[in-house]
Amino acid sequence: MILSGQKEVLIKNQIFYYDNSRYLIAPMYLSAKSAITKTPYLALKIAFSVDEILEIIKEIGINKFNNTKDLGLFFGELDKNLLNAIFRLISLENSDKFRANLIKKEILYLLLSGDGGDFLRSYTQNGSMKNIILKAINEIKMNYKNQINIENLARNFNISSSSFYSNFKEITGVSPLVFIKHLRLEEAKNILLNSNLDAHSVALMVGYESWAQFSREYARMYGLPPIAHTKFLKSQGFYKIRLLSLE
Predict the structure, then answer these.
(1) Does residue 238 have a pLDDT over 60?
(2) Average model confidence (pLDDT) across the chain
(3) How far from 10 is each of 17, 30, 102, CA to CA, in Å?
(4) Which residues make beta-bridge pairs with 36?
(5) CA 24, CA 18: separation in Å to the nearest integer?
(6) Which residue of 2, 49, 82, 156 has the fewest CB atoms within a 10 Å radius of its CB?
(7) Alpha-helical segments (H) within 63-148
(8) Would you state the pLDDT for residue 64?
């Protein structure tokens, strides 16, 4: 949720704006572009594990959901109950984990019983295609530096390669190979920004065997070669940027 300012998100050729009147649910890493459109900007991220979500689903007894197509993101309206729970959570001392867990359960209950409930359930329901793609993305995130065989990955989830490719692109907006490329380039950008490593070393670190290919694809994605882009971002004050999706 945004506490101050406004953000723009571009996904699947559609642009969405959200500010402190809305919240965003993002169940997995997506190939999306975002930009801060109003400042000062301050945002808060609350992370929930799949197990935490499933625990609340089990407790409230709502297992069915309408499995409709979506953008992989959900924008919901913030109401007083949800805001109250969120502010109670962030006002707690770090050591008060017991109360924090109770409030997180309350927040999940409000999300699952609200307009975003079906969206959340569709990604956590074991065996659903969205859940399979979510698990596949987690596999890719853990191994993106290595050579990933997409056919073997699909086989691990007991689905055909063609079904995996088509559903992956429908859910994430890009093919598995493009997704891996974007993941590597995002991580390369963050390493370059937050270290003194040279671009050749970083290219190898994120899984590229060819420096020329890395430089070419980096420039295509960001508009500038790696070193020039890093210098530009640092001149604009973009220091200590963390790729939240790789936490």
Answers:
(1) no
(2) 86
(3) 9, 11, 34
(4) 7
(5) 8
(6) 49
(7) 80-90, 97-112, 117-124, 129-143
(8) 59
What are residue 12's phi and psi, to 5 degrees? 50, 45
Query: 158 is written with which tokens?
Result: 């007991």
- Collapsing DSSP to helix, strand or coil, 207 comes out as coil
Least-confidence region, from 26-35, 103-112, 149-158, 227-236: 26-35
Q: May I ask the CATH class of domain 178-246?
A: mainly alpha
Say what the pLDDT of residue 103 is: 94
> Which residues lie below 8 Å from residue 6, measured CB to CB, with a gap of 6+?
17, 18, 19, 36, 37, 38, 41
Q: pLDDT-based confidence at 242, cuts 50/70/90?
A: very low
The verdict on whether omega for the bond into residue 40 sits within 30 degrees of 0, i.e. cis, is yes
Q: Distance from CA of residue 201 to its chain's centroid?
A: 26
Query: Residue 85 is inside which H or E element, if any?
Result: helix 80-90
**C-alpha angle 105-107-111 in degrees, rounded to nearest 5:** 115
Q: How far apart are CA 188 and CA 2, in angstroms?
A: 27
Collect all residues with Cβ–Cβ distance below 8 Å to 168 and sequence separation of at least 6: 133, 136, 175, 176, 179
Instruction: Give the Cβ contact number of residue 119 at 10 Å.
Output: 23
